[in-house]
Amino acid sequence: MAIRVGTLKDSSLMARRLAPSRLVVCAAPSYLDAHGVPAAVAELQNHSCLIYAVDGNSQRDWWPFGVDGEIRVPVRDRLRSNNGDILLTAAVNGAGLVYLPTFIASEAIRAGRLSIVRLDQPTPRGTAIHAVYPPERNLPAKTRALIDFLAAHFGPRPEWDEGLSLD
Q1: Which of 35, 105, 151, 158 could pair with 100 in a Cys bridge, judged by C-beta atoms 3.0 to 4.6 Å apart?
Q2: Are 136 and 64 in contact (CB under 8 A)?
Q3: pLDDT at position 138, please?
Q4: Phi and psi (nearest 5°) for 160?
């Protein structure tokens, strides 16, 4: 079994949705004070952006917006990493705007170290955290128990989203 975050590609694996994975654009208050708060996705081109290069998008120079991610907004990168914690630290220290899942950014948002940037387009809603596993008829009981536990623990509104104004 593996845990996958994001939109799943077609495969022969079975998948169970464990929790939503919400995305937010955010920045340190110091960055926003110095560079202004963008109100529209078109304004992102004028900002330093910290790009989360995962899931085969290491060369992607745009961020997806719209309910289904159908709007591609070009961004300029100041830093690109496949490690969300590095990008979180850079954002907290005022390096630029970052587009992260709430399970990475929520603690810094609640603590006031990052502010959510409200734009004229929503972030995609279809991403989630899944357990994926081979299509065996007799999945081991301990694997099934772990999947059931994770789904019950995280649920449709995981604790990392509590207290965040996401809509």
Answers
A1: 105
A2: no
A3: 83
A4: -70, -20
Tell me if 58 is assigned to some domain: yes
* Residue found by looking up tokens 């991403």 in the block: 127
As given in the structure block, the two tokens for residue 115 are 């502010």
> Residue 21 is encoded by which pair of tokens?
């994975």
Residues comprising the chain, all counted: 167
Paired tokens of 166: 């996401």
Q: Which domain holds residue 69?
A: 2-8+21-151
Per-10-residue mean pLDDT, the chain, length 167: 84 89 95 97 95 68 89 90 94 96 94 96 88 86 93 88 78
- The whole-angstrom separation of Cα 16 and Cα 19 is 9
Span between the terminal Cα atoms of the chain, in Å: 32
**pTM for this predicted structure:** 0.85
Q: Is residue 166 assigned to a domain?
A: no
| pLDDT of 167 | 66
